[in-house]
């Protein structure tokens, strides 16, 4: 992807000058709401044409030849809907036909994909009776029908309970293999354990691309903890980015982001990915 930009017809610049080179593994695409993640996902899924720059897949420009990518693409959009009256098996069979699979091949792919997402036993139940997590797994199953080498999953964990979230994360890790999986989310813990690469977007721009370890390294020395009296909390909140606060018998233990030591008692602590992401968004907002 080279210098990719996208301007909506109304004039809103949702993606600006974004360049990225990707290979197999799980890319966690992080960014706050409105950062431009869904717009970028739609460009990569060939559903939107960039208004600037170029996206190539194995050297082919996907705006010129979208089918070169489409045959290798599985996509779970943010607003994926299912037909409540159909069973999971019927729904997947329908989508397999839409995707041009037929006969024995279609049947085999449907069963394989149901098994991959752990829904073989529930395959004949109505989708209307499925939980949110099960429905998202059907979404993944349909994206896998053509055994894609690029799997794009847009905000898949929204509305899932913690257990379903965890199950869904494990599923994506299992599916990665030789594929490129792009998982967009605004929740750091969705990608914390699984992503081999991270890309962070804010206001349409790429603020970081690298490994989670690199991002953690960048935030080193910027995360602090100390214990303060409860009545000092408001002041700290007003002056610093507060990552966490924990009430304890001796006061409130706070964890803040700060370029320098924020308080005489403050100790620099090892950043977690959530801290590093918060630090990056703050640092990149200050720089722009
Ligand atoms: N159809 C549209 N017309 C005009 N502006 C749009 C349209 N769709 C999205 N936008 C704007 O483009 C920007 C990026 O939106 P996008 O949905 O890509 O962000 P996002 O990072 O996926 O956020 P979210 O997680 O909230 O979907 C936002 O400011 C949004 O308001």
From TrEMBL:
Keywords: ATP-binding, Nucleotide-binding, Transport. This is ABC transporter domain-containing protein. GO terms for molecular function: ATP binding; ATP hydrolysis activity. Residues 1-228 form the ABC transporter domain. Belongs to the ABC transporter superfamily. PANTHER family: ABC TRANSPORTER, ATP-BINDING PROTEIN. SMART domains: AAA.
């Amino acid at each position: 992807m080279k210098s990719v930009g996208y301007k909506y017809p109304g004039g809103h610049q949702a993606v600006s000058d974004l360049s990225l080179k990707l290979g197999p593994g799980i890319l966690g695409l992080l960014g706050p709401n409105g950062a431009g993640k869904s717009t970028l996902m739609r460009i990569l899924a060939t559903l939107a044409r960039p208004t600037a720059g170029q996206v190539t897949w194995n050297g082919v420009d996907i705006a010129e030849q979208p089918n070169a990518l489409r045959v290798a693409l599985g996509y779970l959009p943010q607003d994926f809907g299912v037909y409540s009256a159909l069973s999971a098996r019927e729904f997947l069979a329908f989508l397999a036909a839409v995707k041009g699979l037929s006969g024995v091949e279609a049947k085999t792919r449907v069963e394989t994909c149901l098994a991959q997402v752990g829904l073989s036993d529930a395959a004949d139940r109505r989708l209307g009776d499925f939980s949110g997590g099960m429905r998202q797994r059907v979404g993944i199953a349909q994206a896998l029908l053509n055994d894609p080498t690029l799997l794009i999953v847009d905000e898949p964990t929204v509305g899932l309970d913690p257990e379903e979230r965890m199950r869904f994360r494990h599923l994506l890790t299992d599916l990665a293999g030789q594929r490129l999986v792009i998982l967009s989310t605004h929740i750091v813990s969705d990608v914390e354990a699984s992503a081999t690469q991270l890309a962070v977007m804010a206001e349409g721009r790429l603020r970081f691309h690298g490994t989670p370890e690199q991002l953690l390294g960048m935030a080193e020395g910027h995360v602090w903890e100390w214990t303060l009296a409860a009545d000092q909390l408001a002041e700290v909140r007003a002056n610093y980015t507060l990552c966490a606060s924990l009430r304890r018998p001796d006061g409130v233990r706070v964890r803040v982001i700060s370029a320098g030591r924020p308080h005489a008692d403050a100790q620099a602590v090892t950043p977690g990915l959530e801290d590093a992401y918060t630090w990056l968004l703050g640092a990149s907002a200050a720089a722009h």
